[in-house]
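hey so u asked for the seq, here:
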Amino acid sequence: MAPGPDAGPIPVRTYPAVAEAEATRATAALFAEIRRALGVPVVNLIWRHLATRPGGLEWAWGAVAPLYRSGAAGREGAALLRALPLPDAPGWSRADLRAAGVDEAAERTVRRVLDSYNRSNAMNLVALTALARRLREGGDSEARGAAPAETGADGGPPMAGALPALLAPAEMAPATAELVTRLDGFGEVGEGRIPASMYRHLAHWPGFLALAATRIAPLHEDGRLTGLIAAAGEHAGAAAERVAGALAMPGPPPPAPTRVAVAAALAEFTSSVIAKMVPICALLRRAMQE
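ran it, structure tokens below
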């Protein structure tokens, strides 16, 4: 049943995370390092969530940082995106975007959001899949192999410009909040637990979210999106095997509760929200004609 006019905003799922603007001292420094290493203007939800666990962000980032600094995560992430069997579909024309309320300036910002998540999600899926597997195997205290030489992110030049603010649920109109919730459900089996931050950046332009929903919904409903998510996971798994030897395990590890929480978060993110957002973001970016 649709909400009445006075029902207020529909709740949008949230997940424990440290907001970039609220990070202080060591956490803020690590966030800045992550942005530089990935070459993007945003810290993805997985890193902001790990920052809620004492020592969790430091431990996880310390383990995978060599993959980003060497360019391994960037190269493997770019290869993953190229390998995705995306379906052919006509792109959105400029008229489509303008009719959806996306003017010229907004179009540039939307592209920046999609480019940022397209790059970072693919890199993170590879690197964090490698770390999640290592933790499942119990190898949480020593490095295997030498870290590769630092050669840069290799996912392209660093992206310039900031992303629009993440809108809180209370800042969205009810219809926009409902649309974000619907988008979050695409690619999920069941309701899903982890919301995708990308949609909250894009909620400044509800018309664009509506375009996105019309592009993704048929793929979700006929099962093709499930196939794309599985393909992303398979490619990430193969890439993770290739880069796993360069993982570093700085010691001493954090307390047992943090180790358990980090391992659980990595397993959940790599099997659900990051894996599904890799093909979704790639689909939306392809639809944005140059």
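The chain has one domain: 31-287. The chain has a mean pLDDT of 89.
lmk if thats what u needed
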